[in-house]
Amino acid sequence: MVSGTVGTGTALGAVLVSLLAAPAQAVTPADTDGPGARPAAATAAAAAAAPDDAGLRAILRTARTQGAPGAMARIDDNGTVHRLVEGLADRTTRRTISTNDRFRVGSITKTFSAVVLLQLVDEGKLKLDTSVNSYLPGLLPDNRITVRHILSHRSGLYDYTNDLFARTVPGFEAVRTKVFTYRDLVKLSLKKARTNAPGAAYSYSNTNFVVAGLLIEKLTGHGVAAEYKKRIFTPLGLADTVYVHPDATIPGRHANGYLTPDAAGAALVDSTRQTASWAQSAGAIISTPRDLDVFLSALARGKLMSAAQLTQMKKWTQVNSNTAYGLGLRRRDLSCGISVYGHTGTVQGYYSYAFTTKDGKRSLTALANTSNNTKVLNTMYRTLEPAFCGKSPASAVRGATRSGGPATAPPERHEDIAPGITRD
What we know:
Helix content is about 30%, strand content about 15%. By secondary structure, the chain is an alpha+beta fold.
């Protein structure tokens, strides 16, 4: 079943409460974001293109044919909302998926964690270029690992999820109901050699954002749940965004998640119920498309930290030809000449994309309720093009839709979970 609606409303509602002692400043227009920065004229022209709903719908349908029970996308285009859904939220009840459904956002959580730490920099409680061990004595084996290294995935700390999920379903079932401490997870990482010297290279690792959670709790004296709520959820009115760890259930109306086994043709595993304790501050937030659109728009508009810290967040390390990573933030460069900012998310049973334009005026959240399926992963990546670039001139002539991304764009990888494991 497919439905698509477009409506109007306000993207952020009432004026947001400032989280800083001084008023938040707008982002400076110069986007010297490092490699791949786009010319201002091209950005302005591309941003004017309307979202291609037909193209998005075709992508969601393709994800279904490739094994996703359901898929959806929500665009907030400066107050005009596009909602497209395809398939099921629950294979048992046969309920259609909805853009009002909550889901596990996976590594999009990393952007929330980075925001909290950058707010602490604004408050004078944290310095990005100070050793993590200055705040958490003895935690890490190298005093050269700084907070900046942690937030930019340049610490060299091994990703423990490579070991937990070397076998997808058995690995998941072994931790589905388990509760870890942050230090348990760091110890799992430190059993293995580091991938590189501090600052030497980008190497995605969930361990980094486990350390981020430890920093949040040490510097605030509160759990991450309380800090997310106080600093982000409540001020932005994210009423459907929650952090329930170690509770294993998703409260309220939600899309079930379905994990694809490694063996071809094996039945999907309902992975909805889990503690997500293996992820925590690296990936355990639950949200909705609307709330993620609001969050990223507010971030881009400078509502969550000072302009100085947003500039730090957008100091990029190039990952591949069309992707760069800042501090808990990804930049994706699209074929129409614009860059979008946000994060991807993978947690068992869910693939998600949440991105916004530089000015925060257009935001997309897209979800497929399966994981461990590279075809679906790459298909959902294609949602960025019709959402932000609209129809390509060639496709408009042919009556077809944009198939997604620059011709040279590399395929997606399962980077957000077990990045060192190749499955297909």
